[in-house]
Queue: 2 jobs
Job 1
Amino acid sequence: MIDPHPTEGELAILRVLWARRGPCTVRDVHQALSRGKDTAYTTVLKMMTIMAEKGLVVRDETERSHLYAAVHPEPTVQSALLKDLMTRAFSGSALQLVQRALDAEATSRADLDAIEAMIAEAKSRRDRS
């Protein structure tokens, strides 16, 4: 499990790094975040420094403008956050988590079909092991 878990602000920064698929400067991240809401450059810099200390990003200091990259890929972080949510809110029950997700909003037929296919694949993997 990834520890510590990223905060909402840290996740926003990680999303920029994942979308860019490579190292970024603080300026790159600031520009991307500023499209959605007004964010101070110094705030982004401070957050990315903290994220480096927490092990969420790595900082390359070989260039004048330091480059940052996410340590963990997006699916790894999502899985860790989901596992934490499932444990804390649903007593570890995947069934309850899925029930609440399906109850929360209307799910399209295409999404339900995709979920059904994922369940069939998961059952198949379990049967093979």
Job 2
Amino acid sequence: MQLRYAFRVYPDAGQRVALARAFGCARVVFNDAVRAREDARRAGLPFPTAAVLSRKLITEAKRTAERSWLGEVSSVVLQQSLRDAEAAYRNFFASLKGTRKGTRVGPPRFKSRKDNRQSIRFTVNARWSITDTGRLNLPKIGAVKVKWSRTLPTIPTSVTVIKDAAGRYFASFVVGTDAAADNARMPETDRTIGIDLGLTHFAVLSDGTKIDSPRFLRRAEKKLKKAQRELSRKQKGSKNRDKARLKVARDHAKVSDARREFHHQLSTKLISDNQGIAVEDLSVAGLARTRLAKSVHDAGWSSFISMLEYKAERYGRTLVTIGRFEPTSQTCSTCGNVDGPKPLHVREWTCTACGTVHDRDHNAAINIRRRHRPAERR
């Protein structure tokens, strides 16, 4: 299994200039590739192959006065940018044919130097390395300081250097994991748990545990509104506007980082404590079109379930997703009677068949767990 390990990096002034140059060159090659394909489409000609684009947009372009500065960065960065364009077109065509999973994607668009995210990728043949002092040595950029928060399990196959909207730099390594070693790290257990995700509580477990929703965005909303107002008052194109934009981006990054850390800690604990996990397949896209949209996005259910999925696969656990149309909130977990739909404000109800009083979310979590193990005796 391949995973990404991301670490914060701190380039000095000269390295930031070199990275900006590399970001710009990769962006130009990507845009040239998209433009070449669009020109061929309009002219009714076959799409140029990757080899033709590589020769024309990189090798021959370096010899011209207009693109001679492409030689100032690693050629691997330029080749990887071409591969990104090829992958974008493959995903677009697969989406048109219906063979690609997930939401439909559009055709590749031109990149801009004002994009929130800039990135370049180095593969093994770029001869990047990690020095004895723990720095990341990148060709034509130098040895960049890295803040190592954990050790890499294996030798990475590639590294992507990213600059986000908040002006922070990250190094993202692609590493392969050892399944046997990962399984040995997890304690032996035969527990099975059901999880009911919600807004009143982020999660209610079938054992009765209730995990409060941190509501990171709601708590930071007042501060974010103030920063956004200050940004709107700055003159466009001014340095003060750039500073205000960075402040807004950093405030949003703090919210996003806190939410991601919460998801990681909770998903790791659930995977560690349980062999089987059952969770409901929620229609996040549908709920995001309702008046609950801000709270739904603040909870980040999709991100949390994605973490559960890859961690279950990595550590040999079982994750089962229950259909969203299963009447988990309507079924009595004691006698199995389906008591009909109930509005969201009803948090506690009494079964009309057996008289058991149910907490809505706890009852749903128990039913979700039982659908993971249908043979369990009621």
